[in-house]
Amino acid sequence: MTTSDPRLATLSLNQMTTRSWSVPEAVAGCVRAGIPAIGLWREPVAEIGVAAAAKAVADAGLRVSSLCRGGFLTASGDAGRAALDDNRRAIDEAAGLGTDCLVLVVGGLPGGSRDLPGARQRVADAVAELAPYAGERGVRLALEPLHPMYCADRAVLSTLGQALDLAERFPVEQVGVVVDTFHIWWDPDVWAQIARAGARIASFQVCDFLTPLPADVLLGRGMMGDGHIEFAPFRRAVEAAGYTGDTEVEIFNADVWATDPDQVLATMKQRYVDLVLEG
Amino acid sequence: MTTSDPRLATLSLNQMTTRSWSVPEAVAGCVRAGIPAIGLWREPVAEIGVAAAAKAVADAGLRVSSLCRGGFLTASGDAGRAALDDNRRAIDEAAGLGTDCLVLVVGGLPGGSRDLPGARQRVADAVAELAPYAGERGVRLALEPLHPMYCADRAVLSTLGQALDLAERFPVEQVGVVVDTFHIWWDPDVWAQIARAGARIASFQVCDFLTPLPADVLLGRGMMGDGHIEFAPFRRAVEAAGYTGDTEVEIFNADVWATDPDQVLATMKQRYVDLVLEG
User: Fold this and answer.
1) Does the distance separating the beta carbons of B230 and A159 come in below 8 Å?
2) What residue range is the signal peptide (chains A, B) (predicted)?
3) Is there a domain that residue A1 lies in?
4) Measured between beta carbons, which residues in chain B are less than 8 angstroms from residue A185?
């Protein structure tokens, strides 16, 4: 790869930020931009297969900072068993890609259910089932608390503290947490919980929180600097907690997706330096 | 007023649920429906004046369960002083209407600011300024934690615990909190915080959380039963905490607003009995 700017030594492109790119295209884009790591998604990996994706990344000299994503563990019965099987495959894929971090979006309320405690219990049971399997393969389950606006339909884990309450039941090498600025920036308890997280921090993801939220609230994730979050305090907090891994930029945004991906990477590098590292 | 169903003895119509109605129309609607209390909003009250609104309510034999709303206290300088003046007027209006509960939506980040701790500090300073003024007039400031999706633009108080941390700095008769199911249903700590709130609970508001959220996320508040919240545990929790006041139904929803208001009240009564009281 090209000689990197040392300030970019732990910067990672989450593949969703350049959604139109295949895995080989995103890998080549990272090389051109001097970005040393990439967070992969299962769907584009499946398009070329795990082995080919792993080879593309390795040949380019990149790291895989995470695989997105497993989870959706709140169903019961046959659907619940199918979800466990799918998560075991995701763990295998993470191992095959050479990353120790599998991000889990745990799932919302099953259709028609209002039993939030029950859904949370099924997540806990599923994590207990999957954690040893992950650990045996050198993969850590990274529980991602999602913004509370997704509690009903995507993740019944809503705060870092709640994710840690669950993660701490398991060995630290089996279950960690994701610190994603978009999801937790509003939390009055966030600094204490990042400090508490310590070695449980399996992934640090950044993007901004935009208002007004777009019609599809999944796409309210903006480029750093375009929204309301002050990033440097989060970078300093995860560092103070002992985190030395990559910082993934993960943006779901229609305007970003409509922009030339090489230009997105150029903007992302500049904003990362100005706002995450030095802000 | 008409003889009420005893099950409706503490039911209140928040005026925003029947947005097209003036104060006299909403009062008459409550009388027709046998609903004994009403939560008023400042703007429709201003259309006829505080004295006329107070007389309309009193003549009908209704209670005023709250006045919505003061707040928006995060600006500094001239705008901050103007906000304090406006809140003093809101306190006077609450007193004039015969309610001891002024709901405060505390405000989001000032335009262009990313200083969330600073905004929270200005809220605390403003509440300290207003609380004695309110107390002297027999009015309690009811701090409303809003759903975290509104943190940037409407309220930097996002959890009941955070609202209580602030409220507890003041005498209980001066500063309380609002328990609104829409805003806090997702919170893993909500039951402990309702128990902690005890006599600080100044208002209990119910409506459902809908998905997908509408394009204007302010309008995601649905009729009970149309969304994801299980209501009866919240009603039991506030009762266990000692709350004996009214349950206000406050819905912001384009479909509800397009429905005949008398029909809205009929549905609201039925859902209240089925899902809040007995669910």
Assistant:
1) no
2) none
3) no
4) 116, 151
Closest listed residue to residue A214, CA positions, set A248, A264, A267, A252: A252
Indicate yes or no: CB of B187 within 8 angstroms of CB of A148.
Answer: yes
Q: How many domains does chain B have?
A: 1
* A250 contacts A205 by C-beta, under 8 angstroms: yes
Residues of A in contact with B215 (CB under 8 A): 215
B158 touches chain A (CB under 8 A): yes
d(CA B209, CA A101): 33
Distance CA(A278)–CA(B49), nearest Å, equals 53
The answer to whether A149 contacts B152, with C-beta atoms less than 8 Å apart, is no
The low-confidence residues of chain A, meaning pLDDT below 70, are 1-3
Residue B6 clears pLDDT 90, i.e. is over it: yes
* Maximum Cα–Cα distance across chain A: 53
**Looking at the partner chain, which of A115, A148, A209 has a beta carbon nearest the beta carbon of B152?**
A209
Cβ(B15)–Cβ(B226) below 8 Å: no
Give the residue numbers spanning the domain of B234.
6-277
Nearest in space to B219 (alpha carbons), one of A253, A213, A110: A213
> What is the rounded distance in angstroms from the CA atom of residue A95 to the CA atom of residue A140?
10
Question: Does any domain span residue B1?
Answer: no
pLDDT by residue (tens digit) across B73-128?
A: 999 999 999 999 999 999 999 999 999 999 999 999 999 999 999 999 999 999 99
Decide if B3 touches A, using CB distance below 8 A.
no
Residue A114 distance to chain B (closest CA, Å): 5
Angstrom distance (rounded) from CA B243 to CA B234: 11
Residue B251 lies in a domain: yes
Q: Residues with Cβ < 8 Å from A188, sequence gap 6 or more?
A: B120, B158, B159, B161, B162, B165
**Do B62 and B36 meet the contact criterion of CB atoms below 8 Å apart?**
yes
Domain assignment of residue B72, yes or no: yes
The pLDDT score that the predictor gives to residue B3 is 57
Cβ-in-10-Å burial (0-12, 13-18, 19+) of A278 comes to: exposed
Give the CATH number of the domain where residue A23 resides.
Answer: 3.20.20.150
A156 Cα distance to chain centroid: 16
8 A C-beta contact, residue A195 and residue A237? yes
Question: Chain B window 160-189: which residues touch A at a Cβ cutoff of 8 Å?
Answer: 161-162, 165, 185-189
Question: How confident is residue B4, by pLDDT bands cut at 50, 70 and 90?
Answer: confident
**ipTM associated with this complex:** 0.96
Q: List the structure tokens of B182.
A: 């829409």
List the single residue in A with minimal CA-CA distance to B115: A230
Give B 33-72 residues with CB within 8 A of chain A.
none
